[in-house]
Design a protein that fits this description.
This protein has 80 residues and is mainly alpha-helical. Helices cover 51% and strands 10% of the residues.
Length: 80
C-alpha cells in the first residue's frame, strides 16, 4: 500500500473491476485478488493502488474468433 493511497469501498471495487461481490471474495479466497484492510469492526477498504495493480497484471481472457467458436461447439456436440 502506498502512503496516502485512496481506500476503496467494496462497491467502488465492484465498479472499478466489474466483478460481483461473490467474485471478489472468491478471488480473495484463491489468493488472486488483494485482501482489504480492516478499518473498524464492520468496515473494510481496499487500497486503490493494489486494485489498479491487479487490473494491470491480470491475465486477459482472449475470446475465440467466430470460426474457432463454431468448431469448438461442433467438437463439444460430437463428444456428448
Amino acid at each position: 500500500m502506498i502512503e496516502g493511497d485512496r481506500m476503496l469501498t467494496r462497491e467502488e471495487v465492484e465498479n472499478l473491476t466489474g466483478f460481483s461481490r461473490a467474485t471478489i471474495y472468491r478471488l480473495m479466497k484463491q489468493c488472486v485478488f488483494p485482501r482489504p484492510f480492516a478499518m473498524g469492526a464492520r468496515a473494510s477498504r481496499w487500497p486503490l493502488s493494489e486494485v489498479q495493480a491487479y487490473i494491470a497484471t491480470r491475465q486477459r481472457i482472449v475470446r475465440p474468433e467466430p470460426d474457432n467458436l463454431a468448431k469448438a461447439k461442433a467438437r463439444k456436440r460430437q463428444a456428448a
